[in-house]
Amino acid sequence: MQASKTSRLRNSSPGDRVFDICNVIFMVCLMIVTMYPFVNMIAVSFNDANDAVRGGIYLWPRMWTLNNYKYIFGESDIYHATLISLLRTVTGTAVSVFCTAMLAFTVSRQEFVLRKFVTLFFVITMYFSGGLIPGYLLIRNLGLTDSFWVYIVPGVIGVFNMIIIRSFIEGLPEGILESARIDGAGEFTTFIRVVLPLTIPAMATVSLFVAVGQWNSWFDVFLYNSSNINLSTLQYELMKILQTTNTSATAGAVEAYQSAENAVRVTPTSLRATMTIIASVPILMVYPFLQRYFVQGMTVGGVKG
Amino acid sequence: MEKPVYSVNSDPQVKSPGMNKTNLFFSRLIQQRTLAFMCLPFVIWAFVFKYLPIWGWTMAFQNYKPARSFSEQEWAGLKHFRILFEDSTFYRVLRNTLVMSTIQLILGFVTAITLALLLNELKNIIFKRVVQTVSYLPHFISWVVASSIVLTVLSPDGIINLLLTKLHLLDKPELWMGKGNYFWGILAGTQVWKDVGWNTIIYLAAITSIDPSQYEAAEIDGASRFQRMLNITLPGLKPVIIILLIMNLGNILESGFEPQYLLGNGMNLEYSENLDIFVLKYGLGMGSFSLGTAAGIFKTVVSFIFLFSANHIAKRMGESRLF
């Protein structure tokens, strides 16, 4: 910001102007490279499935149709998986953000005697973990496999998120907490009535991070719930389609989808494109509005963490 | 910062001369019991979910059988580590892990810093905002979606093959995912595509804290835009770069798991399999929990050595450091 402000003060030399033009061209190319795959996926998802197999669809569908979307939402497994994805995103985010904020509140209090111990206890876990197999056996021994709770309970606290919220609370004016106490509010009331409403910017950032993580995760489904189709999520269903395509067992898959009793016909290509769009659109609709918050949150967390 | 907020609550005057330190601690803890109860459930949670699994490391020194209780397990000493270090597959996945994470480390740093410097030079604030928003987009999508995109873009009739054949750089479409020696490049490209925008956030924040008078002085001395970028902005980023470098060196064996697992297939297995996939395949897939855990321990220990060495070197060089 400062740099651009100062550079505006002086007359730009021809060399500088060439640099500026190249820079803008580069940025436009960058945006095209970033956006193109999504535009292409959208085009394929709105194109007739059998026509799309011919290839050659890039920016715009050749034969408009909504059949791919109709098929997917008519398919009960995928529809159910979408509901589970939504449910885990909403529940998981609410639980994790509330708990993480409560923990952050306690360790933000300078006079709390356990502050250093608790902070260290959590920060260590950022660098040290038991690893995949001990973690897997723990979840199995706790009886969390084959249940919805395995999506929520292991993610109750995010340490990085806790650091973001803690830094934010520490930045609040001291008098606010003091006056709450003078008014006779207990610690818990202070947290709910005073701290939570004031930390909304930090909570927005953390909610976005947690929600994105919940919505995007498939590995926990794969590890713990792969045998139970009722607990499958959208990303996991997409992952299964991806694996069939990647290992090029496509021919069999085409037949399977076309012989389905559903009247609408889809191909793996269209199915994949459509599910890719469904799996990414909710997040892409939300994140630009939270940009101001997460940029701030990343900066604080990045420096302190 | 260190000043107590609730001075009334934690008044040090409560301390009477006869009271020792432990008593003072407990009397304050009782005063602060609400706070203690508010964090207690999470401390228990962390103990169960983060610390208890470390106990599972004992499995690496046993011939672990899931059905038996701990006292019934048969101890095996370092047998599983020996098996691991004699396994040629282990060396292959270790090579893949190191190569992939090194490429990712270097390329990730260079591209993010370059993009941050260039973004900083954009004069139109609205255009800059738009570029930034667009560049954050791929960070938020899952690796499943990203892999789906990569497979589409690189498919025989995908855009890459189309462009390359149109430009006569290729005679016929290439099977990108079918040849192992392309895998590292594809992975590196995908990772840059996904995270380069996101990684600029921290550099751009650091740039705003550079003293503007430095730019003014350089301007008076007749330094060009490019010279100022190299001689003021880049050195101004040095502390951030070093801290991030230390943190990333600690992750040198974390080459990622999801992209390799999702983009890997039978034909590029030689190059795509890394340590995490090895643990998953041998440990959970084939049920040799002990061997998988041994590989996991190896990973954690090496990561720690890297983290501490990098931190130590930074300290010796008089640079900013992590701890």
UniProtKB/TrEMBL annotation, chain A:
<feature type="domain" description="ABC transmembrane type-1">
    <location>
        <begin position="82"/>
        <end position="290"/>
    </location>
</feature>
<dbReference type="GO" id="GO:0005886">
    <property type="term" value="C:plasma membrane"/>
</dbReference>
<keyword id="KW-0472">Membrane</keyword>
<feature type="transmembrane region" description="Helical">
    <location>
        <begin position="78"/>
        <end position="105"/>
    </location>
</feature>
<keyword id="KW-1133">Transmembrane helix</keyword>
<feature type="transmembrane region" description="Helical">
    <location>
        <begin position="21"/>
        <end position="39"/>
    </location>
</feature>
<feature type="transmembrane region" description="Helical">
    <location>
        <begin position="190"/>
        <end position="212"/>
    </location>
</feature>
<dbReference type="InterPro" id="IPR000515">
    <property type="entry name" value="MetI-like"/>
</dbReference>
<feature type="transmembrane region" description="Helical">
    <location>
        <begin position="148"/>
        <end position="169"/>
    </location>
</feature>
<comment type="similarity">
    <text>Belongs to the binding-protein-dependent transport system permease family.</text>
</comment>
<feature type="transmembrane region" description="Helical">
    <location>
        <begin position="117"/>
        <end position="136"/>
    </location>
</feature>
<protein>
    <submittedName>
        <fullName>Putative aldouronate transport system permease protein</fullName>
    </submittedName>
</protein>
<dbReference type="InterPro" id="IPR035906">
    <property type="entry name" value="MetI-like_sf"/>
</dbReference>
<keyword id="KW-1003">Cell membrane</keyword>
<keyword id="KW-0813">Transport</keyword>
<feature type="transmembrane region" description="Helical">
    <location>
        <begin position="271"/>
        <end position="290"/>
    </location>
</feature>
<keyword id="KW-0812">Transmembrane</keyword>
<dbReference type="Pfam" id="PF00528">
    <property type="entry name" value="BPD_transp_1"/>
</dbReference>
<dbReference type="GO" id="GO:0055085">
    <property type="term" value="P:transmembrane transport"/>
</dbReference>
Automatic annotation (TrEMBL), chain B:
<keyword id="KW-0812">Transmembrane</keyword>
<protein>
    <submittedName>
        <fullName>Aldotetraouronic acid ABC transporter membrane protein 1</fullName>
    </submittedName>
</protein>
<feature type="transmembrane region" description="Helical">
    <location>
        <begin position="98"/>
        <end position="120"/>
    </location>
</feature>
<dbReference type="InterPro" id="IPR000515">
    <property type="entry name" value="MetI-like"/>
</dbReference>
<feature type="domain" description="ABC transmembrane type-1">
    <location>
        <begin position="94"/>
        <end position="310"/>
    </location>
</feature>
<dbReference type="GO" id="GO:0005886">
    <property type="term" value="C:plasma membrane"/>
</dbReference>
<dbReference type="Pfam" id="PF00528">
    <property type="entry name" value="BPD_transp_1"/>
</dbReference>
<dbReference type="GO" id="GO:0055085">
    <property type="term" value="P:transmembrane transport"/>
</dbReference>
<keyword id="KW-1133">Transmembrane helix</keyword>
<dbReference type="InterPro" id="IPR035906">
    <property type="entry name" value="MetI-like_sf"/>
</dbReference>
<keyword id="KW-0472">Membrane</keyword>
<keyword id="KW-0813">Transport</keyword>
<comment type="similarity">
    <text>Belongs to the binding-protein-dependent transport system permease family.</text>
</comment>
<feature type="transmembrane region" description="Helical">
    <location>
        <begin position="34"/>
        <end position="52"/>
    </location>
</feature>
<feature type="transmembrane region" description="Helical">
    <location>
        <begin position="289"/>
        <end position="308"/>
    </location>
</feature>
<feature type="transmembrane region" description="Helical">
    <location>
        <begin position="232"/>
        <end position="253"/>
    </location>
</feature>
